[in-house]
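Structural prep section.
Before we set up the soaks we want a predicted structure of the protein with guanosine-5'-monophosphate in place, mainly to decide which crystallisation condition to try first. Input record follows.
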Amino acid sequence: MKNGKLIVISGASGVGKGTVLSLMMQKRDDLFFSVSATTRAPRPGEVDGKHYFFISKECFEEMIKNNEFLEYDAHAANYYGTLRGQAEAKQKKGHVLLDIEPKGAAQVRKSAPDAILIFIMPPSIEELERRLRGRGDTSEDQIAMRMERAIWEMEQRTWYDYVVVNYDAQRCADEILSIISKLED
Ligand code: 5GP
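Run finished without errors. Recording the tokens verbatim:
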């Protein structure tokens, strides 16, 4: 059987990537989420091994030395990385969904040129800010920092293969699923 593809999904924090990815996985059982490793602390409700593998900075740096990451990046004072072994194992079963930011996406494009890069945009900047505020767990300083980062991330969409606007999570998920189906034809 042919290996599945790496499908990178990027988009600013608050754009609704998590919901879109779950809706996609509900519709196809051959899509697998790549669980990243991170040094950031878990948020309430996050489960180790499901949302992320939460590891120490020392452990992360040791894994970098051992070439265990397909890509990694340090942002917001933490490391985030895609586990090479896990991604390869999941590719044997189907397509692998990578929820990673643009610097990581650029590394994936380099090391896996047949990866598909998809960028999710919010309907507007105002809507993104409203969604960020709606989460209720972010201070004004954090909102300002996230908005600045979001604007930089959105500028990177020009070199992605596809840009999809998240007006509605189900529609957005269906649009990405149809991109994937077309690529399989
Ligand atoms: P959060 O801390 O809100 O979960 O994630 C912050 C950002 O890190 C998101 O944009 C997410 O896409 C990105 N991210 C999560 N995992 C990885 C990873 O393994 N590699 C890279 N480069 N970025 C990641």
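Observations: Residues 13, 36, 40, 71-73, 80-82, 99-101, 103-104 surround guanosine-5'-monophosphate (CB under 6 Å).
Flagged for discussion at group meeting.
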